[in-house]
Task: inverse folding
């Protein structure tokens, strides 16, 4: 049984994030619906790990290990307690719930809102939660897009731990895009950040992520002009298409002659 | 096994990271062993390379089409490697003598084409008879570039050549290109996947009399079609891997979105101002 769980986990965790619903349905068909409870459990773990936004009547929140409360989750800014239907990624049994929010937590949250509405054209979801240690806050930003009619999806996640006494900011960003019309093409990138002496948290995040974006645009250009171009030429050195038929052997004769063979 | 289950397995693979294709096929087969045969024969995976010890260690490409038991037939020596026993060989598939002549000539031509476009890499072509009563045949032409590198290109052209009337032939080609690009650094970037396209072409072989001439005409027609398809797909791969991925990325995050929004706002204000004049 645990081998089965391992295999399901491997496959589910390889799904393009916005397409997890389709992946879980297809997995159920492939496995004859014999262990849909295992699939449901693994999809739940996947949603938490990828910080996939949960729909609470039109507003989006996260279900993570940081805001777990018993079998439910709380959100300090929407002031709610909720459970999650992991297959649909919607909140259930939503009830109002107040928790104390520090001034710093609230300030960061509000500044994040401005940053996200400026730089994230996708549907951006974000939060600031107390982390495991006092003095520490976890900051999560997720931006997703899914266009099944055009066969593509995209996912951004950046997550940081900010320590207000040491003023350090550690985190990483993961991005993937998926295009699957007449094929299957995936782009993945990630980067780790480790900043010291941070005064303004959101400004620092903005600066780090903008530099990441600029490097990414450069990597695309360089991969295209470098590694890609080296694999196969657009045209042969002769700049004309191949003369097929009997004459094709002349290319080799020409090449051997030029080598003095 | 139900058709539905097999289709679901194929659809599932198209939703999972193509970089892990081989591992994911293996996992699906472990879950549902009855899917093994169909999945292994219908999903294209990166080509393996072997050396032909009977032909100056010339490299050749391996796929399900030149496989028997755990050995692969080399297009150069026509031997299965590692060697099969004479008993096993009685059951092994080989092209008929005439088709083998065409296979030899096709490998020579495709090897020159490979040199001209790939400037390195390995090519192999394999043919098999479709029906004893006709001259219909099928085959596969393979190219692989980037053996030693993390950046790899695999071209797989599977085709059928059908005689539709005296000198009329239809060529049906299914092409899959598997392309993997990556760069390690501050930010690790990988672009991985495959695209598939089908092509059909009908040609009348005028004045092709001798078998040698017919063979030459088939190589010319298949060769020029493969050249055309690869050129188109190279363009398509460039658009999907670079432009499309970058466009989707910028739907997620875009620093210039704020500037655009502000400009748009200013522009609207300006128009309002002008309208007010």
Result:
């Amino acid at each position: 049984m645990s081998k089965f769980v391992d295999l399901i986990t491997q496959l589910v965790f390889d799904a393009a994030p916005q397409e997890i619903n389709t992946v879980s349905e297809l997995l159920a068909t492939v496995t004859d619906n014999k262990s849909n409870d295992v699939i449901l459990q693994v999809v739940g773990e996947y949603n938490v790990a990828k910080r996939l936004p949960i729909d609470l009547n039109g507003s989006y929140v996260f279900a993570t290990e940081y805001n777990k409360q018993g079998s439910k989750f709380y959100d300090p800014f929407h002031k709610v307690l909720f459970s999650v239907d992991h297959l649909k990624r919607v909140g259930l049994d939503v009830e109002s719930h107040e928790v104390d929010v520090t001034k710093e937590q609230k300030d960061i949250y509000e500044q994040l809102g401005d940053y996200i509405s400026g730089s994230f054209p996708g549907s951006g979801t974000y939060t600031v939660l107390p982390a495991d240690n006092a003095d520490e806050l976890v900051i999560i930003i997720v931006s997703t897009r899914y266009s099944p009619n055009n066969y593509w999806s995209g996912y951004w996640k950046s997550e940081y731990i900010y320590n207000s006494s040491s003023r350090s900011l550690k985190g990483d960003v993961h991005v993937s895009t998926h295009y699957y019309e007449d094929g299957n093409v995936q782009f993945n990138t990630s980067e780790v950040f480790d900043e010291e002496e941070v005064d303004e948290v959101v400004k620092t995040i903005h600066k780090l992520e903008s530099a990441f974006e600029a490097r990414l645009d450069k990597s695309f250009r360089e991969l295209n002009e470098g590694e890609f171009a080296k694999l196969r030429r657009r045209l042969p050195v002769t700049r004309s298409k191949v003369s097929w038929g009997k004459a094709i052997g002349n290319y080799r004769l020409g090449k051997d002659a030029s080598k003095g063979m | 096994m139900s058709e539905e289950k097999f289709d679901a397995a194929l659809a599932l693979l198209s939703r999972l990271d193509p970089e892990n294709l081989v591992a994911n096929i293996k996992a699906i087969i472990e879950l549902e062993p009855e899917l093994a045969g169909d999945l292994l024969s219908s999903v294209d995976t990166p080509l393996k390379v072997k050396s032909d010890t009977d032909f100056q260690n010339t490299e050749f490409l391996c796929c399900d089409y030149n496989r028997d038991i755990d050995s692969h037939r080399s297009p150069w020596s026509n031997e299965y490697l590692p060697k099969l026993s004479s008993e096993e060989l009685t059951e092994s598939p080989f092209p008929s003598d005439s088709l083998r002549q065409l296979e030899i000539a096709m490998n020579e031509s495709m090897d020159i084409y490979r040199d001209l476009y790939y400037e390195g890499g390995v090519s192999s072509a394999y043919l098999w008879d479709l029906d004893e009563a006709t001259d219909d045949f099928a085959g596969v032409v393979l190219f692989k570039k980037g053996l030693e590198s993390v950046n790899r290109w695999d071209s797989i052209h599977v085709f059928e050549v059908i005689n539709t009337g005296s000198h009329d032939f239809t060529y049906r080609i299914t092409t899959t290109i598997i392309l993997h690009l990556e760069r390690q650094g501050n930010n690790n970037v990988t672009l991985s996947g495959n695209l598939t396209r089908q092509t059909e072409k009908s040609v009348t072989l005028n004045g092709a009399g001798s078998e040698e001439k017919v063979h030459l005409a088939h190589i010319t027609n298949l060769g020029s079609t493969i050249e055309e398809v690869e050129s188109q797909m190279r363009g398509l791969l460039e658009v999907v891997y670079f432009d499309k991925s970058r466009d989707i990325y910028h739907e997620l995050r875009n620093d210039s979105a704020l500037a655009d929004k502000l400009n748009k706002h200013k522009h609207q204000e300006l128009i309002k101002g002008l309208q007010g004049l």
